[in-house]
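Trying the structure run again after the queue cleared.
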Amino acid sequence: MQIPPFVSGGFEVFLNGVPQVEGRDYHRDGSTLVFERPLAKEGRLGTIRWLSMLLGVAGTYRQNDSVDVVYESDGKRLVATDLPITRSPR
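Done. Tokens:
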């Protein structure tokens, strides 16, 4: 996952709202954050899935991770939310 180009200096990383620790939960490879655990986005829901949720038959229980980066710019704390998740080559 790429760190946005407008984020410079120190920053904090959150996965699904939980603070992450560099070296334990993720590491940096240049401008890329690499997480040890696999991350995934749920993606688009089909018509049948939407209908079943609307009728209360089923919910959405797929993995849907969200990565946010908190950084400072001009003395203000800002958040880059829901960064795009990309697969790293292994």
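The radius of gyration is 16 Å. Worth checking whether this holds up in the mutant runs.
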